[in-house]
Amino acid sequence: MLDLVKMAKRATQKALFGALLLLGVSGLTVAQTAGSGAWPTQKPIRFIAVFPPGGSVDQVARILAPALQAELKQNVIVENIGGASGVIGTAAMTRSDPDGYTFAVVFDTHGVNPSLKDKLPYDTIKDIAPVILVGTSPMVLVASKNSGITSFKQLAEMSKAGKPFSYGSIGIGSLGHLAMARLAKQAGFDWNHIPYRGGGPLMQDALGGQVQLAVGSEFLVKPHIDSGSVIPLVITTAKRSPALPNVPTIAESGFPGFSAPAWWAVLAPGKTPPAIVDAMNKALNTALKSPALSEKLKSQGIEIVGGTPETAREFIGKQIGIWGKFVIENNIKETGQ
């Protein structure tokens, strides 16, 4: 009789577990109700930053990790897997077990890669589950101190007069590259693009004067602006940034309607159970609302978005459409523009 009672209890627990998953209850609630297989308790959570150390993706991941660790009571480890504009790190995430212990922090290049790359090692829809849109930020065009450029007006006048300039971005097909390519085409500027493997290497050369101009997220360049190491010229969003109120927008500098915000998101392998995706989304939303974390992001020009996984999915899909169209229409290739 005792064995029969135990078997009945186990059957009831399994049925309840399945029903809760179908109802979309969070992974934490499912685990607590079922009484076994709780998430996250098995091992540390891995956050793959899909660009090298020193760039904004790396920094966002390392700001999120301790806050998330405190929220989930589980170690969160950041691992940098850079290369191919975020593709290598994203592919590593998609190949991981969809058990809720591997996620990727991606940048706006994720929305361009499907149209830029001849073939991706993953399906952007089937192999990826968006978790949350962390936030958006202006891109900032800055000048090296030894470039002789002190304002966008001066740069535009010299460019229109036929003087060639070179600008660096975090890679071919990055939002910075596409935004500047769009600006140069619209204005008729003779600008040469120099791709880098990430924000760290890009800013090293901008600080050293090896590249005249650099475009990067406000998060990436603002510390160097604050230190006086580079000169801010213009930002890519429709409105001025509260963090850089004296820096004009491209739209108000003679190019009405110009807007190209940078963005960051957290992704999971496509087959990750929806309950775990929802639980991680809830934990990240809570972390983003903490005063200490939100202040760190806002001070670097990131406007926190948060919201549901569906919000992230819709935003990313829209970005893929907007910039994919530009890439195709302008025949932008990985080997150059």
Describe this structure in words.
This protein is an alpha/beta fold and 337 residues long. The chain has 2 domains: 45-136 and 266-329, D-Maltodextrin-Binding Protein, domain 2 (3-Layer(aba) Sandwich); 139-253, 3-Layer(aba) Sandwich (D-Maltodextrin-Binding Protein, domain 2). The protein contains 12 helices and 11 strands. It has helices at 2-23, 27-34, 56-72, 87-95, 113-116, 152-160, 175-187, 199-208, 218-226, 274-288, 291-299, 309-329; strands at residues 45-49, 76-80, 102-106, 128-137, 139-144, 165-169, 191-195, 213-217, 230-235, 262-269, 303-304. Strands 2-1-3-10-4-11 form a 6-stranded mixed beta sheet, with helices on both faces. Strand 6, helix 7 (175-187) and strand 7 (191-195) form a beta-alpha-beta unit. Helix 1 packs antiparallel against helix 2 (27-34) and helix 3 crosses helix 10. The longest helix has 22 residues, at 2-23.
Q: Which strand order does the major sheet show?
A: 2-1-3-10-4-11
Q: Could you say what the CATH topology of the largest domain is called?
A: D-Maltodextrin-Binding Protein, domain 2
> What's the N-to-C terminus distance?
76 Å
Mean pLDDT: 88
The secondary-structure class comes to alpha/beta
Please give the number of β-strands. 11
